[in-house]
Design a protein that fits this description.
Order of helices and strands: HHHEHEHEHEHEEHHEE
Number of strands: 8
Oligomer: single chain
Number of helices: 9
Distance between the termini: 50 Å
Radius of gyration: 18 Å
Amino acid sequence: MLSDRERMRYSRQILLDEVGESGQLKLKEASVLIVGCGGLGSPVAMYLAAAGVGTIAVLDKDVVELSNLQRQIMHSMDRLGVPKAMSARMTLESMNPEIQIREYIRELVPENVQEFIRDFDVVINGVDNFETRFLLNDACYLEKKPLIEAGVLRYDGLVMTILPDQGPCYRCLFPHIPEEGTVSSTQTLGLLATIPGIAGTIQATEALKVILGIGKPLTGRVLAFNALEGHYDVIDWPRDPHCPLCGEHPTIHTPGEDFE
């Protein structure tokens, strides 16, 4: 049951016909793993904490640096040098002390990723490197876990929701990890401060929809936007029958099996 304090705290959300008190209980009982406590992970984690998701785990192996503070809103000047996962936990606990926050200062690798995600209801990717993207995609497909994916660069962002066996996986777009140097990055082309905030907020919304079982997730579709021009488009994203992971004749049976 919800306490009187929780009913007051989440009253605006409980008023929604699609949520109600039963939906708020679903959120309270749900667990979400957020991989990456940076530009995307910050708004995701903060909004899920505010919404009352009962268990939020944050994972990041890096520490807070000055260049992060332009967009990574969970962190602050007094936490420079502090592990990002620890800083994230401190922020989220101050926002909502009634939920459980777990911090993990570690790196996901092929040997541990599948077992690590197994205990969570939803996984959210907030990292900017392809190897971790592919690892999470593979592990979530094999463990049948929803994965909320996003990417940002300059003024652009995209968000997609991957529901195993209900739509395409990440490898349907990129069958293999792009070769180093062939894909642009924020380190070379830059990023407007608000762009990960937009994408991360959409990721959080997708996670809430999946947990609550409401609306139409971005499955089989990509929401792409260019904030400079004010363009927001939803593009169909079909499943690839030749996908090495989720296709008709898969060749990948463990996460990162094709990594060199």
